[in-house]
Amino acid sequence: MTAAYKRILLKISGESLAGPKPMGLDNDTLKLLGQTIRQVTELGVEVAIVVGSGNFWRGRTSAGMDRVTADHMGMLATAMNSLALSDALEQAGCVTRVLSAIEMRQIAEPYIRLRAIRHLEKGRVVIFACGTGNPFFTTDTAGALRASEIEADIMLKATLVDGVYDKDPNKYDDAIRYETVSYDQVLQLGLGVLDATAAALCRDNHMKIGVFSIIDPQNIIRMVKGDNIGTIIT
User: Fold this and answer.
1) Percent of the chain at pLDDT above 90?
2) Sequence-ordered list of residues with C-beta below 8 angstroms from that of 65, at least 6 positions apart, any chain
3) What span, in angstroms and rounded, lies between the C-alpha atoms of 222 and 225?
4) What single string gives the DSSP state of each residue in 73-138?
5) pTM of the prediction?
6) Sequence ranges of the domains in the chain
7) For FRET with 126, which of 14, 38, 42, 179 sits at 20 to 30 Å CA-CA?
8) Neighbours of 44 (CB within 10 A)
9) CATH number of this structure's domain 7-233
């Protein structure tokens, strides 16, 4: 097997780490994900990861709470997910580093761009915790920002849906999946695959995005190999 990309940024939703559970972490899911990502590194691919927090906390649904406080709590939830994913990867045989946008030196390194790139060059899997470190920005935007900063070849957005559709496939049986779509189409048609800030950031920095389903973790390997699954936004 040969990889189509040398360096990737993998964006994983927090919900996917819960597996069959409604909330929290599922050990079997983490173990399988760790083994799959190890297989990606064995292809010679440098892997960076941004993980969401939806399995623990969604700030935008915290009615009555100050938005900045809610977002900070969400960032801390991504730190928990990052540590759990790091542990699963280490048990699978990978060397990892967690870099946090919010300083917490006892459990993670502070985010420094050149340090992150150096870790990747040494074959370590780098996990970016705490989003951008700022409220009002989603982990999609954090993924787009980090992918651009480390000069990744592509940002792979792992979701519970197998690509970008013209309308919600969970509601409409006649929804059509795009094989390729432009950032302008994503923004103009409001396709909802990622927020407007992340889409505009990737468009302006010519960062390609692959959207695919992580229900089968092997899809990560298929995307890295360049197989025609999911949707490519370019």
Assistant:
1) 78
2) 59
3) 5
4) HHHHHHHHHHHHHHHHHHHHT--EEEEESS--TTTSEEP-HHHHHHHHHTTPEEEEESTTSSTT--
5) 0.94
6) 7-233
7) 179
8) 10
9) 3.40.1160.10
